[in-house]
Amino acid sequence: MRVVIRLLTGVLIIITGCVGTDILDDPIVPKKILLNSGDTAVVLSTSLQLESVYFNEYGVEEVVDIRYFNFNEDIVSVSEDGLVTPLTIGQARIYSYFEQTTSDTILVNIIGSPEDVASVVIAPGPNEIAVGSTITLTATAFNFNNEVLAEEVVWESGDTTVARVTQDGMVTGVADGITNIYAIAGGIRSEPYPLTVGVVERVATFMGSSGYTGEGTATLKMDGDNIILELGDDFKTDFALGTFIYLSNSTGGASTRANGLELGEVESNGAHTFNVSEIAATAGTSVEFTTYRYVIILCKPASITFGIADFES
Amino acid sequence: MKYKAAIVFILVSFDIVAGGGWTEKKGNGYFKLGQYSILASDFYNPKGDIIPITTVGYHATSFYCEYGITDNITAIGYVPFFVRNTLNEIKFRQSGRTIAGDEETNIGDLLVGFKYGLLQQGSIVVGINLLFGVPLGEDRGGEGQILQTGDGEFNQLVKVDISRSFYPKPVYSTVSLGFNNRTKGFSEEFHYGLEVGYLVKDKALLALKVYGVESLKNGDPTGSAGNGIFSNNTEYLSITPEVSYYLGKNWGITAGIGFAARGERILAAPAYQLGIFMQRKK
Questions:
Q1: pLDDT (tens digit, 9 = 90+) per residue, A252-280?
Q2: Which of B41, B88, B92, B277 to probe by mutation at the A interface, max A CB count within 10 Å?
């Protein structure tokens, strides 16, 4: 009997001893290319090596044969491996691509000397404003050595029917729409500052998933500089131990846990409010008004999606 | 029919009660040190469909006893004194990224009560069980406070066992009907069971247990933290073949595997049971 007890004890310890590992495929995400835009000014007599990194459908970096597209062949030439050779003073737009995947377009400024304005940078601020409301932007001109220059800045709106900007940087929302704001100094135009006017609220209705209850309204709105998610009084869900609200770009449980933004646990039905901007900052990330498509009710322990609210439905 | 095993957590304790309609004679007893384990990467959702989940493990090491206080009253106790609830780490194949797992080790919910022998003469006997589920387990454990070794509520199960001996054939059968009254907004449950046993050469007892739980789904409709998928509105119909083998005159080992024909809101995976038992006969 002693032998049997020892054997059983050993078996119990082995059975209950450890936390295992589930091996899953990474969630499928859009392929992307990041084009290095760190140093985008080039003195006329020199050159600039661009670098691009490709991320595949699993979000994993992969070495592929990336090519470059140059919008302004009269200002620069770009080799197949991304070497930019200036031809004349001006600004050139370039992007990189692999198959159907393209990077964001970057602006390369060709300058005559290191003392010239090499870049104009608009300080970060709100990217969404209501119609009739205003924000004030500031911009700084730098030379090639990143020294601040006391250059006069001229402001421009890409679409004055959407937003107007005064020459002291005050932007006023005119009508619903999307536009860009630019700052120009010493003949150098800044990167576009994207601005959404009027569309400062996204509303979606929850639907249950996997046989669970998910009901009510989710509203994403701006409150000053903060993005706020409100679940309405009509919010209703099934509850598990660990029922969490996520913002996500997929509806799958595991992919939401992996790539979504966890806003917090809910333990009751009815109204809830989450300061998305603060939560994202605490998590060491940033979020824009349109970064995420879905609000997900997630049973976090089991990675089961209880409910989905789709802002684009 | 798709057979996936499914027994879950605290509910399992109600179908471990041995003895059927027979009570222990005064001073006699049945004692078992057992291990119950389930490791599930599937789950029966509220529609009864099986969906994949992050693998959850539930392992309970327990002591079970029946002891005859009188010829007609048997004390029953189930003490899961070492319970582990685990949640697997997730590792993504392509990126190598991981999401940490979690674990909780604690005592589980206690089950205590009595069996009263209403009819103990002849080939058909009737026993009435009154069992109390005492919430000694952790209902919010682990680093993430999302694991359980108990459901956090006090419940009372009344169950009638009607057993028949087919002596001189070494065969018995038991039919069970019960009602589980739960608290803290949990739904009440209707329990039913059928067990057939066959003793082989006085050495091995082969038993087939069918046990079902139907939820009245009358719990707190607004939901609460305790109204979890792991403990409320669960339903299942389990089928458990079990063998007990006598290694000595009064002791032996027992093993079983639980399968389920259907389920709702419970883990879907084989439930393994292993134990060593001892009978005390005056």
A1: 898 898 889 999 999 889 999 999 999 99
A2: B92
What domains can you pick out in chain B, each with its CATH number? 9-280 (2.40.128.130)
Q: How far is A203 from chain B (nearest CA, A)?
A: 24
Q: What is the CA radius of gyration of chain A?
A: 26
Residue among B94, B225, B247 whose CB faces A239 most closely: B225
Average per-residue pLDDT for chain A: 89
Assess contact for A160 and A174: CB atoms under 8 A: yes
- Record the tokens describing residue A303, joined without a space: 């990675």
CB atoms within 10 A of CB B183: 15
Evaluated on CA atoms B51, B57, B61, B62, the torsion sign reads negative
Structure confidence at residue B12 (pLDDT)? 45
**Residues 219-238, chain A: which have Cβ within 8 Å of B?**
236-238
The pLDDT tens digits of the residues spanning B119-160 come to 998 999 999 999 999 999 988 888 877 788 888 889 999 999
**More reliable by pLDDT, A210 or B48:** B48
Q: Return the percentage of chain B with pLDDT > 70, whole number.
A: 90
CA distance A9 to A6: 5
Judge whether A32-111 and A119-197 match in fold. yes
Backbone angles phi, psi at A5, to 5 degrees: -65, -45
- For domain A32-111, give the fold: Immunoglobulin-like (2.60.40)
- What number of CA atoms fall less than 13 Å from residue B21's CA on the CB side? 26
Which residue in B263, B213, B37 sits closest to A12, CA to CA? B37
The helix/strand/coil state of B211 is: strand
Q: What pTM was estimated for this model as a whole?
A: 0.78
pLDDT exceeds 60 at position B87: yes
CA distance B7 to B240: 10
Decide: helix, strand or coil at residue A3.
helix
Enumerate the domain spans of chain A: 32-111, 119-197, 201-310
Collect contacts of A175-183 with beta carbons under 8 A, ≥24 apart. A175/A131, A176/A131, A181/A122, A181/A137, A181/A155, A181/A156, A181/A157, A182/A155, A182/A156, A182/A157, A182/A158, A183/A120, A183/A122, A183/A137, A183/A139, A183/A153, A183/A154, A183/A155, A183/A156
Sequence-distant (6+) residues with CB within 8 A of B163 are B20, B21, B22, B124, B125, B126, B127, B172, B173, B174, B175
Retrieve residue B182's tokens: 């739960």
Task: Say whether A16 and B82 touch across the interface (CB within 8 A).
Answer: yes
Please give the average per-residue pLDDT across B30-51, as a whole number: 91
Answer for the pair B85, B143: CB distance below 8 angstroms, yes or no: no
Residue in B closest to A258 by C-alpha: B99
Distance CA B152, CA B186 (A): 10
Q: Measuring CA to CA, which residue among A186, A308, A178, A169 is closest to residue A248?
A: A308
Q: What is the pLDDT of residue B4?
A: 35
Topology given in CATH for the domain delimited by A119-197: Immunoglobulin-like (2.60.40)
